[in-house]
Amino acid sequence: NLLLLVTGGLDRLIRTWNPYVPGKPTGTLKGHSAPIFYLCISSEDNRIFSVSTDNMVKVGSFMLGYDPYTLITAHPKASLICGEMTACLYSSSVRALYVATDSISQLCLKTRPPPQGHLVMSHREPVLCCGYSEELHQVVSCSEQSVVKVWDCDTGTQVFEFGNAHGFSAISCLTFDSKGRRLITGGRDGSLKAWNFNNGQCLKIFREDGESHKVCDCAYLTVNRKSYVMSVGWDRRIHVYPVSVFLSGHKDDILCMALCPPTLLATGSHDGEVLVWNMVSGHLQCHILTPSPPDSSVVSSFTEKSRQMTAHSNLGFFFQSRLKRQITKMALSKQENWLYVADEVGYISVFEIDAYALVPDQQQTAPKGKKVFSLPTLNLPPGLLLTSSVDCTVRLWSIHGEFIGTFGQADRWSIHTPSSWQHPTAPHEVLIDPLSMPASLPLKTFHSPLSCSEGKTDCLP
């Protein structure tokens, strides 16, 4: 019914054809960087599935094409596809693509249902990062569709927004300059951009020549009265701008970084390595090999005045047997005595790191089943915690787990007036899912010295 043919080959291009007009392709789709290995058309979803020899999987609409209209790009590392590609198969019944390498991987195509009318959404798409400008007292959130929104932290109302910040690429990270008046965003297009985020003006673009790699984290640093913007990502380098130099030392993709002013920088990579750099000399200061399995990657890190903490996907380094879920973000309280750990399920666990980060104090939740991507606390007013998630929300909490509100809700709040907070009313997703509620402590067990012939114990209030 579609009257469409799709071909791909060694030139890395995908061509669409009208079978009745074979002389010229109707369209040419770009996006792959290796020869095309497998192609499939899913007519029920109007999708094209393509797999290249570098194990990269792309899902696009044949009505629009791929670049820049790619709907999904499944990176092999993120999708746990490793080894030489041998076979692929798309199953329309389960809407999944099976990829055979050293093992068989199943990539399911899941489309998000439209937001329900009773749910408050800060964005129309997943929120990947958020931050707080102490100077302007504003919260900035960035989404998967490259939309930047600015919020008033005092009331939760939207101040400004602008789109297409990185074209059609998602914004994966953000930071502010030392004064908190300029926003720096990093995108999956491999670029960093500096913004006046109160009017949407792009002030400068930082990008290396050559192939673009996803930016995973960025930071702003001042050394010897000179300011630098830095980024890390899938090209395994630490880029330092505006002098356009880079530090090289990791053997795998760099996923996160943390500053320890005035001179130290720590970076963590997919293979579990942590490197500490001297930013004045540019030399490697320390190399930490963590006692973790080889498939453990560093996904979040932070620095204290006296020590460095790093979280791994299997939690073998600091939180052994305490949590069973992958960590997505960590943040410190201003007093550096509490550690807030967000995981892929949506829980935020609180650890007292004065006790070596081994005993969780309490557990509060963002919506269950929604990965928490950003968790800033350091620059926020005292007693506040800011979260963003793939459920399209940006929320404000007290550090004791009290829910203040969702940015964009109809009712304004005042952070100085607890009676205006949503607490004790929890977010709707938490209310309807009992597994999302904090676990209660068990009652104390009493052992009676008495017994009876039936072997039965009774009690009265």
UniProtKB/TrEMBL annotation:
PROSITE patterns linked: WD_REPEATS_1, WD_REPEATS_2, WD_REPEATS_REGION
The record's SMART domains line, in alphabetical order, gives: WD40 (SM00320)
Which Pfam families does this UniProt record tie to the protein?
A: WD40
Q: Which domain of life is it from?
A: Eukaryota
InterPro entries from the xrefs?
WD-EF-hand_domain, WD40/YVTN_repeat-like_dom_sf, WD40_PAC1, WD40_repeat_CS, WD40_repeat_dom_sf, WD40_rpt
Start-end of the WD repeats?
120-161, 169-205, 247-279
PANTHER family (alphabetical): WD40 REPEAT DOMAIN 95 (PTHR44324:SF4)
Q: What is this protein called?
A: WD40 repeat domain 95
* Organism of derivation: Paramormyrops kingsleyae
